[in-house]
Design goal:
With about 900 residues, this protein is an alpha+beta fold. The protein has a five-stranded antiparallel beta sheet with strand order 5-4-3-6-7, with no helix packed on it. Strands 8-9-10-14-13 form a five-stranded mixed beta barrel. It has a five-stranded mixed beta sheet with strand order 15-22-21-18-17.
């Protein structure tokens, strides 16, 4: 009887849980839902001990351990927290916000509420440098809002770090004052990791201490992976140990090795994944795999991809419908979900990766090669399994009918974009029998494309005119050229076919009320809309649509400005006003494409959301029962994760490309280029060069003898006295003065007539390369490292490679005048929030002397606050916080130093900034 009464009580309490049925579907032995646990705490109106909450929820002995695990998980995710007595409370009762930390290279950071990640940044909470001592970039924290900063942003303090994001860090080893430490390559990790066995002193108010352990013999400057043994505290630096030595900074491929670890990208498949992939068949077996699938092997589907593509996950076919009723479009997508099953090792790893990552010369695939380049690659003349979107499209470009089904098919030909376009444009004719056979359907596809493309503009999709580039490498792996990617109508043809299939997939999920992931793109944030309209007013332009403009309104404005000479500027501002597209189960449409329903269906080999959409479609078709995320919250979580892995891949590829571009530009220091201002900040103007598509900074101190104010609304820098403006879209001729591999920073200065008259020659580069090889033989360091050190020395005026007996100044620099670093290359990096120009501080060991000749164009910048004419440099060029103090910039160029700078001078300067 007692057992019966207890069971009745449990059942009664569980019935009060509005989400209990969901939990029963998800778990074999369900607990009360997280929502009900928080409701119970809310109703209690006071803190509850863990045991009291368990009693209130009728948690039995068998449920105790899972219940405790759930409590821990809710604490980690900021749904629950404990007071000083250890009792459970809701964060909102303590005015706390669960956030993820985003660090900044200058030491401050932002706490981004978990609910706004991937969306608007207006809810971000500013964390000053002292608060950031407690946490690192990526950590999960509970933050209390304490007020507003001088810009009106909410400011807060970190109450607790609920989850650490960084257990390993990639960086370079340095020695300083008897301390060995690692400087992270990720500048958002604003600290140094002291290696175990070294005395630790953080400077300022942090307590020095001695760590245990020993540091292995590693050369300063080498790239390593450090495991963090002790996380940072309010007065202590993090402590770690060397886990892996990657090599020297300039080793070939090092930029990718660093990016993989810096962004925590999985790049090696676990043994369980390799073993599971090995068990998959080598080829499709029709008798075994056909089953309920439709047989499309008589339809001449073809793949159209780039010349270097290795994985082909989509094939297309089109035919005209009778009586001019439009077209039938068949899009066959590799059926990855047939081989990658939920809960398998393959699926777990694909989830963690989220997507394939495409670096120059290297791909990190989401799935093992046996799947991506084998079983699921739609190679010609072999049977392959596919998920098919079979649609009918009318003469207006509208989809009138569609259906989805699993199929088996055989690609008739592997074609390339350039090949197809040469046939469609009449520049060439197909030479082989196979290519001649598919020629008619290619023309049908092209006719369909023209209709879909016209419908795209009628719909109001936004079509930005941007330039995509690619790098061409030589046999040594060095960039030969950076060239624009030329898109032709064959590219656009495939793009329109994929868009049509994606729209059909989203519409199918919506109509079947099948939960899944949508690719959503929200309307611009109100603050950005207001700023955009304020900017456009200055040009006599306006954006229609009121508070809720549509993509059509944006497209109309874009068409209005397309022929204007300032189109580049206006398009850039339009683009920056828009949000980033993300994955979500909550379908709000796609603003940029002007679609009511949109998802990603066409690339399951390289995108995990597409794989989930395939599973959802199969479930809706009742083709097979596939386990899917059971709740809206679970779908939301996987959507956030996939959005984050997409951003992670973008950031990693940008890092690698920036390093390679910087390496490429080292050979061109001293050259003059034409470019366009692509961005302005409080500390200078970013310029993108015309011919090489490389972006660099013209520091504000190089713009002239005036105060320059940053106007964020008008996207320009304005001289206080001269009223001279530097605005996004303006043309500017610049000279390259610095390409620093360590910081991936490229610096320019405005070019003068003398700069244009005296340009480095090929002979100059040969002299430098010969000297680098000679020094490499003596030091044992790689030639690339010696070349880099020579460039840095040349920039500082301490070394100039020249032919034996040649007078100084024969290498592209006028005699008696040394090349000076522009921008803030020698001093501390200016605070991005500062409205005043940062100024240069002399490097250690340099002395000022009267120049021998007056410079052609003065680069003096007055420092706001009227500094004294002869400001003395701070000791070692840094303040207590480690950032170099701004100094008054002299109108006179620094004289050539008496002694050559040591090779590690760059490292020393970098440490001062860290």
């Amino acid at each position: 009887m007692k057992m019966s009464k207890n069971s009745n009580r449990v059942a009664k309490i569980r019935r009060l849980d509005p989400f209990y049925e969901r939990e029963k579907e998800k778990y074999e032995n369900p607990l009360p839902s997280r929502e009900y646990m928080m409701q119970t705490l809310e109703a209690a109106a006071c803190p509850m001990s863990e045991s009291a909450l368990a009693a209130q929820l009728a948690i039995n002995e068998d449920e105790q351990i899972p219940f405790e695990r759930r409590i821990r998980a809710m604490e980690r995710e900021g749904q629950l927290m404990r007071n000083r007595k250890g009792a459970l409370i809701l964060p909102n009762k303590a005015d706390l916000v669960a956030c993820r930390v985003e660090g900044h290279p200058d030491g401050f950071g932002f706490a981004r509420p978990e609910t706004s990640i991937g969306r608007d940044k207006s809810a971000d909470i500013f964390l000053d440098n002292r608060q950031m001592e407690k946490a690192l970039h990526g950590d999960r924290v509970l933050v209390r809002v304490t007020g507003t900063d001088r810009r009106g942003r909410p400011e807060g303090s970190i109450v607790e770090v609920t989850e650490r994001a960084n257990t390993e860090v990639v960086g370079r080893v340095f020695d300083e004052y008897g301390v060995r430490y690692v400087v992270p390559e990720d500048r958002r990790l604003h600290t140094r990791i002291v290696l175990a066995g070294e005395p630790v002193s953080a400077g300022g108010s942090r307590r020095p201490r001695k760590t245990a352990g020993a540091t292995p013999e590693i050369q300063p400057g080498q790239v390593v992976v450090a495991e963090i043994l002790e996380q940072p505290g309010k007065r202590t630096l993090p402590v770690g140990r060397i886990k892996e030595v990657l090599g020297n900074y300039a080793d070939p491929g090092m930029e990718i090795e660093i990016a993989l670890r810096k962004h925590d990208l999985p790049f090696e498949f676990p043994q369980a994944v390799i073993d599971e992939a090995a068990l998959l068949p080598e080829e499709v077996v029709v008798e075994r795999d056909l089953g309920k699938r439709e047989d499309l092997r008589d339809i001449p589907l073809v793949t159209i991809d780039g010349e270097t593509a290795k994985d082909f996950d989509d094939a297309v076919f089109a035919e005209a419908l009778p009586k001019g009723k439009g077209w039938r479009l068949v899009v066959a997508i590799a059926d990855v979900s047939h081989y990658v099953r939920p809960g398998s090792a393959l699926d777990t790893e694909a989830t963690a990766r989220g997507n394939s990552v495409y670096f120059p010369r290297r791909v990190i695939p989401m799935l093992p090669e046996k799947i991506s380049n084998g079983l699921c690659s739609l190679n010609p003349d072999v049977d392959r399994l596919a998920m098919v979107c079979d649609a009918q499209i009318d003469a207006n470009g509208d989809v009138t009918k569609y259906r989805f089904y699993p199929a088996i098919f055989r690609s008739r030909a592997r074609l390339t974009y350039n090949q197809v376009w040469s046939w469609l444009s009449g520049e060439a004719q197909p030479a082989t029998v196979v290519h001649q056979a598919v020629q008619p359907q290619l023309h049908t596809l092209y006719a369909l494309f023209k209709t879909l493309h016209a419908a795209r503009f009628k719909r109001g999709a936004i079509d930005f005119d941007t330039v995509e580039t690619q790098m061409r490498f030589n046999e040594q792996g060095k960039i030969e050229a950076i060239v624009p990617v030329i898109r032709n109508d064959a590219h656009r043809l495939i793009e329109e076919c994929m868009l049509a299939a994606n729209v059909c997939a989203a519409d199918f999920l919506e109509k079947k009320k099948q939960p899944g992931l949508f690719r959503i793109h929200g309307t611009p944030a109100p603050a950005k809309l207001e700023a955009l309209r304020d900017f456009m007013k200055e040009f006599g332009l306006g954006l229609e649509g009121g508070d809720s403009p549509t993509g059509k309104d944006y497209g109309k404005l874009l068409d209005q400005i397309r022929e204007r000479p300032d189109f580049s500027l206006l398009q850039t501002i339009l683009l920056r006003s828009m949000q980033q597209a993300i994955y979500s189960p909550d379908n709000i449409g796609h603003f940029g494409l002007s679609y009511e329903y949109y998802t990603h269906f066409t690339s399951p080999i390289r995108r995990y959301p597409d794989l989930l959409v395939h599973r959802a479609i199969k479930t809706a078709l009742k083709f097979e029962k596939v386990p899917l995320p059971a709740t809206e919250a679970a779908w939301e979580e996987i959507g956030l994760h996939c959005s984050a892995t997409e951003r992670r891949a973008d950031e990693a590829t940008r890092d690698v490309e920036a390093w390679l571009k910087c390496y490429y530009m080292q050979d061109r220091i001293g050259e003059v280029f034409d470019g366009t201002i692509s961005g302005v900040t409080a500390f200078g103007a970013f310029v993108t060069l015309d011919q090489v598509y490389v972006e660099g900074l013209v520091h504000i101190s190089e713009l002239g003898t005036d105060y320059f104010h940053h106007d964020p609304i008008r996207h320009c820098l304005i001289g206080e006295r001269t009223k001279q403006q530097y605005r996004v879209g303006d043309r500017l001729r610049v000279k390259l003065v610095r390409a620093d591999l360590e910081s991936n920073r490229i610096d320019f200065v405005p070019a003068t007539a003398i700069d244009e008259a005296v340009q480095p020659t090929e002979a100059t580069r040969s002299d430098r390369d010969a000297l680098a090889q000679e020094r490499s033989r003596k030091t044992g360091r790689p030639v690339a490292v010696e070349r880099h050190l020579l460039d840095m020395e040349m920039d500082k005026g301490s070394a100039t490679p020249r032919k034996k007996g040649a007078p100084t100044g024969t290498t592209g620099t006028p005699a008696g005048k040394s090349r000076q670093l522009g921008g803030h290359g020698s001093g501390g990096k200016p605070h991005p929030g500062s409205g005043n120009p940062a100024s240069k501080s002399p490097s250690k060991g340099k002395t000022k002397s009267k120049p021998k000749a007056k410079p052609a164009a003065p680069t003096a910048v007055k420092s706001r606050g009227a500094p004294k004419p002869a400001a003395k440099p701070a000791a070692k060029g840094a303040s207590k916080s480690g950032a170099a103090k701004p100094k008054a910039v002299s109108a006179k160029p620094a004289a050539k130093p008496k002694a050559a700078a040591k090779p590690n001078a760059t490292n020393r300067s970098r440490r001062a900034k860290t």
